[in-house]
Amino acid sequence: xxxxxxxxxxxxxxxxxxxxxxxxxxxxxxxxxxxxxxxxxxxxxxxxxxxxxxxxxxxxxxxxxxxxxxxxxxxxxxxxxxxxxxxxxxxxxxxxxxxxxxxxxxxxxxxxxxxx
Length: 116
Known about the structure:
Layout: H1 7-20, H2 32-72, H3 78-88, H4 94-103, H5 105-115
């Protein structure tokens, strides 16, 4: 069997890894071993935080809806409103309700009146 030297492939791999960690600080941007470790952790965190971001937005929408409800009437609460909106058969999700509350308060107020 012929001898295979992997110099070209190793250099290409090394170059790609160091290109990915450009902008990282200290040894992580210069040495192959630390760079590879940094890439693997970064990928793990990116995967987990893509999931976390969805929950973060949902919490933000809940806060915006609740703030708009309290501005209309201080006795209104988010939980009672969400239960009432489901019973009324209005099929707007939290994202749409939060957008309405933020950008178009008059329409949001009409929805609140309709739910009552």
